[in-house]
Amino acid sequence: MAGRTKAQMMEAIRTAIDKKVLPPMEPGAMCYMLSKQGNLSSRDGHWHPHLMFFFSGTDPAAWGAGQPGSPIFAFHDTWEDLTIFLVPVRQWSDGTEDH
Prior knowledge:
It is built from 1 helix and 4 strands, in the order αββββ. It has a 4-stranded antiparallel sheet with strand order 1-2-4-3, with no helix packed on it. The protein has one domain (24-99). It is α+β, with helices and mostly antiparallel strands.
C-alpha cells in the first residue's frame, strides 16, 4: 500500500473483498473502546465507552439494534460490507461512571 492515496487503498481493499481474496469477518470479532481519550471516528468524535462486534453481511435487526428500548446500536460499513454493533457500557476504563 506504500505510496498509494487513501482512496486507492480503500479501493484495493474493496476489490480484495469482492474477489474473496480477503475473507469475511469471523463471527465473534470484537473490540472495545473504553478510554475517555478515544474517538469513535474522525467524523463522530468522542462517544460513550462501548464494545463493538463485527459481522459480515448481518442485518442489524438480528440483534434488535436500534429498536425502541434496545441498548444496541448498529451501522453498516459499506466499503467493508460489515455490520458493526455498538453496545454502550456504564464505566470508563478508569472505573468512573459514564454520564
